[in-house]
Fold:
Amino acid sequence: MPTTYSHSRLSCFEQCPLKFKFSYIDKIETEIGETIEAFLGSRVHEALEKMYKDLKFQKLNTLRELLDFFNSEWKKNWNDAIVIVRGEYDQENYRKMGEKFLMDYYEKYKPFDHTRTIALETERTVDLNDKYKIHIRIDRLAMSDDTTYEIHDYKTSNGLPTQDDLDNDRQLAIYAYGIKKMYPDAENVKLIWHYLSFDKEMSSERTPDQLESLKKQIIGLIEKIEAEKEFPARVSSLCNWCEFQKICPEWKHKFKTEELSPNEYLKDNGVQLVNKFAQAKDEYDHLAERLEKIREALIEYVKKEKVSMVFGSDVKASIKSYPKLSFPKKYDQNQQEFFEAVKKIGLWDALAIVDVYDLSKMINNREIHPDLIKLLSKFISKEELFRVSIRKK
Ligand code: SF4
Structure:
């Protein structure tokens, strides 16, 4: 039975493998409600879906009817668990944004007869190969003529992408792949985004070759997901919108300590240790800086005095100079030519070594296919190392 993936599932893994694990493997239910941004998006999508559904039955909603529907659904679905991350705005600001999106859209496209709607909020899947399927969820699928299909997507976010972003967008391109498979007569498939915050329509298209290479990329990504064993956390600004923040190892200590009284907070072992570590690190950095300055002064001193040993009260310092040779580095244009020269003088076998630092980085970053790593596995020994770094909160 093929496994079904969706664009949001793939994006979740790319955003943070740990979030993917919490969400799709462990299937953890959180008590945290949806964000106001997601709530607003759902209400606007519902209103536009209703409008186009009614149009199929020759019923054109007035703008007033559309807004009434939006507001009544807003009221019906609102609950206090909905999270407003940006504290400076309230529910009313977001509701008015939704109304504005619908008013602008309505005025721009009425009487909505430019295209013929085929389907709304589709729930289809198409095969990528015999192992994987991809979910096709299109806000509105329409036809502008017999062989031209249009994939319409409503965006309620506050950012406007560039044309380049859209020409490389994966979500609608996946849907275009699906439409071509479902409707072999589709000669053209237009990808159309409605950026409702900006009352702006943007579009793009994909060639058959681009869709074929997209399919391969997606299969590659799915294979990477299925081979993943560790699901590391990837911290980013999107963590603020992550429903698993409270159980995520990157953030849960913060939430735990926020619940403590000021007294309990200062007694928390973690708080005390990190404060001590930061202080010690600060002292260490100052000391390292001081040491370097004294070292430089000593070098100046021996150069001036033409000595190589300097005597203190009960210690002496030896200062020796030696020539430092430099050769072309990685990514230097002439590095390959340099390697050829080393081979020519017969020293390659004696000197060439595998860059194991880069190799471990590639393995840790999952840049090497697991089957290839297996071939190296008998040479790899693994131990757990820790790096402690300090950042401002
Ligand atoms: S809070 Fe951030 S790092 Fe943690 S699971 Fe969510 S997205 Fe990943």
User: Anything to note?
Assistant: The first strand starts at residue 3 and ends at 5. The chain has two domains: 3-238, 335-379. The two ends are 46 Å apart (CA to CA).
